[in-house]
Amino acid sequence: MPDAPVDLFAETDHEQVVFAHDPESGLRAVIAIHSTALGPGLGGTRFHPYESTDDAVRDVLALSRGMTYKNALAGLDLGGGKGVIIGDPHADKSEALLRAYGRFVESLGGRYYTACDVGTYSVDMDVVARETSYVTGRTVEHGGAGDSSVLTAYGVHQGMRASAAHLWGGPSLEGRTVGIAGVGKVGGHLVGHLVDEGAKVVITDVWEPALERVADLYPEVSVAASTESMLAGDAGALDIYAPCALGGAITLGVAQHLEARIVCGAANNQLTTPEAGVVLAQRGVLYAPDFAVNSGGVIQVADELEGFNFERARQRAHGIHHTTLEILERAASDGTTTTEAAERVAEQRIHAVGRLRSIHLP
């Protein structure tokens, strides 16, 4: 049975949702601004062949809300926003389409800053920037931060180490078996961090070239036939499961049967329902909230707004280790899920800092 149509007012607390359509270039996009309490909404633009407009709207609403919490936890003076372009990035992406999208971003007057996401790259942001100044994550050649997946992967690695410290008493991942589902931009970098630390890595991806690229770079990794076979332990029992592709990796069924002790990955919106998070907690599986551990990328592109300095951005991303530990310890002490604990930490900062915006400055 298909999902019911989205009722924006009934289902969301977003400030603004914009539909962008340029028939000549083929642009069909949705931009959602969830909150500007801490500053303009910042979040990447996803280019994906959604089956319906409702699917695109649901995704952009969830992603933009996640960006509010992600940016707050990362200590940024930025709110939450996100854009999605409906289409196949391999077939539909063009200069005209990206520039049309840039003009719609510009029309929002700085309430939303865009950047890269699934299906878009730094070179695409250079094209978007020809029509708007509200864009970050550009190429190094154009003064930008370049590939934000570098620090996204670094931050996820820090989140894994914090999770290991919380669960096993020490941050080392040496000898631990980590299963990564999705070895594209972020997952590929994450493999390198784990191999360097001495972890055993199992990978899977629906795109064969991605598997081949990573296997060529790191011959010591094991390649599973599918995510299902990896979770079943066909390539060895997992200590950590890292979803690094699209969201929705942790369904209720996965939560009920997952044998890994930690879930910590780069994908956004990994839990299909809050109940999945409750089941993980009841079964003693430690879930590192995705919007806490995958914030390295937004830290990287946000730093570009100050004039990019990689080492400064890396040091900020290193703070993901401390933030993750704080969330896990709070969940344990409060008797809540880790997602609830992370949201409370973020909401406290949004309230404490956001309320200052009501103080009039001449």
TrEMBL record:
The keyword Lyase does not apply. Residues 146-358 form the Glutamate/phenylalanine/leucine/valine/L-tryptophan dehydrogenase C-terminal domain. It comes from the Bacteria. One of its GO terms (molecular function) is nucleotide binding. Keywords: NAD, Nucleotide-binding, Oxidoreductase. SMART domains: ELFV_dehydrog. The active site is at K82 (proton donor/acceptor). This is Glu/Leu/Phe/Val dehydrogenase. It comes from Nocardioides jishulii.
